[in-house]
UniProtKB/TrEMBL annotation:
Record field: compositional bias (Basic and acidic residues): 348-367
Catalyzed reactions per annotation: Fe-coproporphyrin III + 2 H(+) = coproporphyrin III + Fe(2+); heme b + 2 H(+) = protoporphyrin IX + Fe(2+)
EC number of this enzyme: 4.98.1.1
Chain intervals for the UniProt region annotation (Disordered): 342-367
Protein's UniProt name: Ferrochelatase
Function: Catalyzes the ferrous insertion into protoporphyrin IX.
Organism: Massilia terrae
EC class of the enzyme, as a word: lyase
Length: 367
């Protein structure tokens, strides 16, 4: 076995730390070709689909990819932003704002980057770039507040597989979950209260989390329990009673039973029972994406209205709200404890000189 080539080492360089915000991923464009490439990578992950490989390969290659790629591309076109995919746009902005906030809090020797588990920027390439920039301590911060083997566990697989090919492995810290972290719960509370202040309050708050097959719960995955704890803590912060909100699960795929109750069926039933207005929040997503903007705000809205509901409100994800950026900074700081993240004035001057020298060399090479 040969290891990946190490970047040149210079004695005396300041060892830096990095926080990598990792989200699920997104296609590069809302086209059939881009979706086919993205879905093939995503749905080939053994963490995502636990079906015998030979059987799943046939289903994926001859049934799902030929038919679902076009349908998914059409859905992405409905929500695509001028800057690109909403998930990538929000994740990139979150990383930039987190970097600024950590700098303002005195963590001058910490760099924040973002990566995708599937698609680009690919996690292995981002980790290589951080190594080239002298980052020898890496904290991985998933964009998933609740742990699941299908999401966070898959990130760990990618991190370990990458470093299995690296000779000089950096020090690693892995943020497993923050489903009950005060910074995250308070950011959710502020988001809901601000929405209610501007738009009024509905008859029921629906907290919709992404679904996973029920068998994962029975086999020991903590995701279901962590979703319910998030919902309970948020309801307490909002001073809601047990009948004021409901926890549901969305994005069911295939014929197997998934976590219940299902979001679409629940909002339709609420409408049939006389609820004139529902407010729907997706606490498990920290960035708006296809599952929130198209599925929840369009498809589920139609289900509610078809069942007789009159007023459907979708409360956006946390995205770049100041409270969430502050919450992420608190989570990051807790996992940076013990690492040198601050520089003396002389170290900062040296770092700036090195950066200026690097830019000058790059300009000379490009001239």
């Amino acid at each position: 076995m040969s290891f990946r080539k190490e970047p040149p080492h210079t004695h005396g360089n300041i060892a830096k730390s990095a926080v990598v915000l990792v989200n699920l991923g997104t296609p590069d464009a809302p086209t059939r070709r881009a979706l086919r490439r993205y879905l093939k990578e995503f749905l080939s992950d053994r963490r995502v689909v636990e079906i015998p490989r030979a059987v799943w390969w046939f289903i994926l290659t001859f049934i799902i990819l030929p038919f679902r790629s076009g349908k998914s591309a059409a859905k992405y076109k409905l929500i695509w932003m001028r800057e690109g995919s909403p998930l990538r746009v929000h994740t990139q902005k979150q990383a930039a704002l987190l970097d600024t906030m950590l700098e303002e809090r005195g963590h001058h020797a910490v760099k924040v980057a973002y990566a995708m588990r599937y698609g680009s920027p690919a996690l292995p390439q981002v980790l290589d770039q951080l190594k080239a920039e002298g980052c020898d301590r890496i904290a991985i911060l998933p964009a998933y507040p609740q742990y699941s083997g299908t999401t966070t566990g898959s990130i760990w697989d990618a991190v370990f597989a990458h470093y299995a090919q690296v000779r000089n492995v950096p020090e690693l810290r892995l943020v497993k979950h923050y489903h009950d972290h005060d910074g995250y719960i308070d950011a959710l509370r502020d988001s809901v209260l601000e929405y209610w202040e501007n738009h009024g309050r509905g008859d029921k708050l629906v907290m919709s989390f992404h679904g996973v097959p029920k068998r994962t719960l029975l086999l020991g995955d903590p995701y279901h329990c962590e979703c319910h704890k998030t919902a309970r803590l948020l309801a307490e912060r909002l001073r809601l009673g047990p009948t004021d909100y409901v926890v549901t699960f969305q994005s069911r795929f295939g014929r197997a039973e998934w976590l219940q109750p299902y979001t679409a069926g629940t909002v339709a039933q609420l409408a049939r029972e006389g609820a004139r207005r529902v407010d729907v929040l997706c606490p498990g997503f920290t960035s708006d994406c296809l599952e929130t903007l198209e599925e929840i705000n369009m498809e589920v809205r139609r289900e509610f209205e078809a069942a007789g509901g009159q007023d459907y409100h979708y409360i956006p994800c946390l995205n770049e709200t100041p409270a969430w950026i502050a919450g992420m900074a608190e989570i990051a700081e807790q996992h940076l404890i013990g690492w040198p993240t601050m520089m003396s004035p002389s170290q900062r001057d040296a770092e700036k000189r090195d950066a200026d020298t690097g830019r000058e060399r790059a300009l000379q090479l490009g001239a």
